[in-house]
Amino acid sequence: MPFDVIVMGGALSGSASALLLLRENPKLRVLVVEQSSRFTRKVGEATVEVSAFFLTRVLGLTHFLNETQLAKQGLRFWFSNEEVTSLPEASEIGPRYQVRLPSFQVDRSVLDEEVLRRAEAAGARVLRPATVSDVTLGAGGLQTVTVRQGETTEIFQARWLIDASGPACLLARKEGWWKSNTEHPTAAAWGRWKGVKDWDGLELAEKFPAWAAAPHGTRNTATNHVVGDGWWSWWIPLKGGDVSVGVVFDQRLVDWPRDGGTLAERLKTFLLRHPVAREMLAGAEPVEGDMHWRRNLAYASEVFAGDGFVLVGDAAAFLDPFYSPGMDWIAYTSTSAVELIGKQMRGEPMEAAVQRHNRDFSVSYRRWFEALYKDKYEYMGEFDLVKLAFLFDLGLYYIGVVAKPFQKGLAALHCPPFAEAGSGLVFRFMRAYNRRFAAMARSRRARGQLGRKNSGRRFLIAGYTLSGGDMRKLLVPLLGWARLEITEGWRTWWRRPEVAPEAAMRSVVPAKMAA
């Protein structure tokens, strides 16, 4: 007897989709095929407000998260230049107080196991460890999946197939839909470390008392970002004491060391150039066997769904880890997948629903890229430019994205950001300031003026409340942007912007889908 749904991949996006399907209809026959016998740690360890809403209020994991993971305290950024020799001299951006909305720093191996366990308890059949060796799609009919488990090969069928295979992108690669985003050539090296200093610990408090007392909230459980020209690094604490540390960089701007020892040694050598990282990593050691490397991070599928299949999480697309959007993407793709499958099972017409799903996620991906990430690494190491961009990015995220699920509930997750009607004006505004800050940074680079405001400055913000009055807070970066245009932006007003050769290549999303 065929299954109703087969899920390829049992980590968060797959197990969450299975769990939500079974909550909506406990009688569904759901099969989850997971290749690992036990999940290991992976990136995507920091949640933000939308993904925290999904984990707590949608999946019901609040008690579990409070018991097994760390409460996150926002984002912090650390800048340096040739004048900075110690931690207090580095310019800092971050919250002054504790955060108002919940978010978490999570060990993904623990989180993913728990959600898969709950999906199985809800009625899903789990094959593990098992590998999908072949898939045959049948539009509007049965999907066929060949699964190998040990020495045994079985063929399963289902009306619906959910691809939650992560970066393996089983369906997109098999069908020729997978496209690298060549306009955003980032790469990353990362791993977990033991012995990283505690940002709120007694050692640093005694060594730098005024620095330690500056914020009223905590620094250690924030996602700290140590940044430089063309690169940034994440510092995410995990329950038990390990710290996830990784570097992400634009390959057009940063020449990553290819020699000089192991990956861990090269990662540490690269970071030790920054005085903040030098302080925090003194005495730290990498966790053996937990170092990773990946090039060309950004990609997307040209197709997100059809009548019988749907892609979720990283199997659908990946953009950039800055601002930790990965689990937000899981929230939108998983809930939308469940809604799409539900429409078919309720007997609703599928052609228009599938077209809308593909359009929404194609437009969302492309607009998020252009609004937030395109050429952002040009100014990643500039304190004043990142400060203004962060205030804009954070404020508009709260007002236009975070507020919706808290006001409308689960239904708000069925349409990803920038896909809803009327979002074009905000998209164009965000794209405009991002482009202008990148242009100013290129001008500074050409004049040898990068990093001139990266020492001795501290900008601590109060945060957002989801109230209507938060709109007024956007006046601060708006005035700051205007001031910058007058004082230095004019240098780029009459020049054609420099475009990297990669930017001339075709978009990751075809024009006909992004229209």
Describe the protein in words.
With 515 residues, the chain is of the alpha/beta class. The protein has a domain at 72-106 and 183-295: D-Amino Acid Oxidase, Chain A, domain 2 (2-Layer Sandwich), CATH 3.30.9. 36% of the residues lie in helices and 21% in strands. The chain contains 15 helices and 21 strands. The strands form 4 sheets. Strands 1, 2, 7, 8, 9, 10, 18 and 19 form an 8-stranded mixed β-sheet that branches. It has an 8-stranded mixed β-sheet with strand order 16-12-15-14-13-4-5-21, covered by helices on one side. Strands 11-17-20 form a 3-stranded antiparallel β-sheet. Strand 8 (131-136) and strand 9 (143-149) form a beta hairpin. The protein is globular.
Summarize the model shown.
This protein is an alpha/beta fold and 515 residues long. It has a domain at 72-106 and 183-295: 2-Layer Sandwich (D-Amino Acid Oxidase, Chain A, domain 2). 36% of the residues lie in helices and 21% in strands.
Which whole number gives the mean pLDDT?
Answer: 94
Q: Percent of residues in beta strands?
A: 15-25%
* Helix content estimate: 25-40%
What do we call the CATH topology of the domain at 72-106 and 183-295? D-Amino Acid Oxidase, Chain A, domain 2
* Rg estimate, integer Å: 23 Å
* Sheet with the most strands, sense and barrel status: 8 strands, mixed
Number of helices: 15
- Could you tell me the number of beta strands? 21
Please mark out the parts with pLDDT under 50 across 5 or more consecutive residues, or reply none. 497-515
